[in-house]
Amino acid sequence: MEMIAGVDEVGRGPLAGPVVAAAVVLPKDHSIEGLKDSKKLSKKRRTELYPIIIEHALGTGIGEVGVSTIDKINIREATFLAMDRALAQLPMVPDRALIDGEALRSQQIPNVGVIKGDDKIDSIKAASIIAKVTRDNIMAQYGKVYPEYGFDSNSGYGTKIHLDALDRYRATPIHRRSFSPVKNKMPTISWLLDNDRIPWMCEKLAALYLRDRGYDIIEIDHGYEKEQRINIIAKDNDDLTIFVNVRTLPLDHDDRTKFSANTEELISIKDAVGSCSYKTEVPKLHRIDVISVRLNKNNPPNIKHFKGII
């Protein structure tokens, strides 16, 4: 039986977040009902179809390209790269691939572009749904870190809430700097100082650091100005709950200094775990970490993660 992969992407137009592609190989006689271009389905219906596609597909692959690469090679090339990566993640090598839109020039697998393929080909429709749900889930995680921008509802597209947030808070590390109006809204150290947003930014960077290392962000304290001891609640890959105290270091701080705290401070951090706003009771098995963040004027921030301080 000839194995044909359908490939589609989502995320060309947003101002923030990655572009995501999916490759799906469906059996010729599949019984999945209701496949459509993801844009023509409700969020609820896409979410319902996602596990059905995963269950019935012979193979699925996901390709993701982040904002730094998008800014470097442009969104069109990033889209092609995401599709290449999706095909590479399939558990098998398909005989050929059907690509929504243009064919992939650099792909060794024989492939052809299908104009409006997400309206015509079931495997491309399925790929569209898998890519969309995957990207929406990624943006929902970013929405926990940056609720000000509405990422959980707009997925990074330029809605009014998003554009207003860019005016008020400036761009974040997950914004595409090469896109208008993002490139005119980059925060500088001076702007952060003038608007008293250094602790705010450091808290966000600590949460992004955890997310990029596979932690699931459960909750982030948005009252940083109150000097809360627990700023982030997360879970690691083993489902262990992590309570994180974020330390904002001065710009001229020597980041070679190791973490240190007196007994009174450690007790204060530990007591804060029991009083922080958590959705359920504090689990008996948990860990308390400290993440220190120092911003730099012309270089990436210095971030250090100290695990299990108590």
Describe the structure.
The chain has 310 residues and is an alpha/beta fold. The protein has two domains: 4-140, Nucleotidyltransferase, domain 5 (2-Layer Sandwich), CATH 3.30.420.10; 196-306, Trna Endonuclease, Chain: A, domain 1 (3-Layer(aba) Sandwich), CATH 3.40.1350. It has helices spanning 43-56, 67-73, 75-88, 117-120, 122-145, 151-154, 160-169, 189-194, 198-212, 263-275; strands at 4-10, 19-25, 59-65, 96-100, 111-114, 216-220, 232-235, 241-248, 286-294, 302-306. The strands form two sheets. Strands 3-2-1-4-5 form a five-stranded mixed beta sheet. Strand 7 (232-235) and strand 8 (241-248) form a beta hairpin. The longest helix is centred in the middle third of the chain and has 24 residues, at 122-145.
CATH class of the largest domain: Alpha Beta
Largest sheet, strands/sense/barrel:
5 strands, mixed
Radius of gyration: 22 Å
Classify the helix fraction into a percent range: 25-40%
What are the low-pLDDT stretches, counting only 5+ consecutive residues below 50?
Answer: none
Output the helix-strand order. EEHEHHEEHHHHHHEEEHEE
**What best-fitting shape do the alpha-carbon axes yield?**
globular
Give a short overview.
The protein has 310 residues and is α/β, with parallel strands linked by helices. 36% of the residues lie in helices and 20% in strands.
